[in-house]
Amino acid sequence: MKTEELSRICTQVRRDIINMTANAGSGHPGGSLSAVELMVAAFFEKMRVDPQNPQDPDRDRFVLSKGHAAPCYYGVLAEKGFISRDEFQNFRQLHSILQGHPDAKKVPGVDASTGSLGQGASIAVGMALGARHQGKDIQVYTILGDGECQEGQVWEAFMAAAHYKLDNLTVMIDNNGLQIDGSNDQVMSLGDLAAKMRSFGFTVIELSDGNDISAVVEALNAPAVAGKPKCILAHTVKGKGVSFMEGQVGWHGKAPNEEQRQQALKELED
């Protein structure tokens, strides 16, 4: 797919994120906006999935470990044809299929229910290992937040991924530098995350601009190294695309009001 079309999809997903969170009066716009290019590139450039057959046992798998970025996930799934955009008006409403965190039992295209941070990496490792045991050519992709990497379970999963030589696993880290209580360095510094991932046995591709769709696609298309899981460490901007949200920790879990919605949509349209 041409870069222009991928960029158009990214802009539409950002508009959907703003509208969903504004309509609900709640949600997590900041970390949803930062993850857009990572998720769009995975679904539109790499993953073997079919909206007409979402339960295909031979499909590639995706795990949104940072489950609070569900608005981004739902926007991508709608663009891909898994769900109707009409569902967006029910985001985070009682009995809606689109809850604040993705539910695999309710949403076509969602392979894992997530939201409790730190667990998605383990789920993805299990999926990749299961595909290996079944002898299936299934690729598994997961997106983690950088603050989420403070969880010990994440590192147990990474250790297992390297031990079992899961070269069918791609871990994408949305490294926007902020989490709900402040910057990562203030809360619990992650140190040299790229060096840590390499020391745990991953092939690491570090992106200085993880919101550059062309760079993300190139990283995803980089050849796998036999016997080594891949990590794409993407330096992104929290709130990307909306000037008053960019780099602001306060927009981690706060919805825009109507005036802010209109300003954000105008910026994205321009």
Automatic annotation (TrEMBL):
Pfam families per record: Transketolase_N
InterPro entries: Transketolase_CS, Transketolase_N
Chain intervals with Basic and acidic residues compositional bias: 255-270
Claim: Heme is one of the keywords in the record: no
Name under which the protein is recorded: Transketolase
This protein's record includes keyword Mitochondrion: no
Domain of life: Bacteria
Alphabetically ordered keywords of this record: Thiamine pyrophosphate
Residue ranges, annotated region (Disordered): 248-270
Cofactor(s) required for function per UniProt: thiamine diphosphate
Record-annotated Transketolase N-terminal domain positions: 12-263
Recorded family membership: Belongs to the transketolase family.
Organism: Dysosmobacter acutus
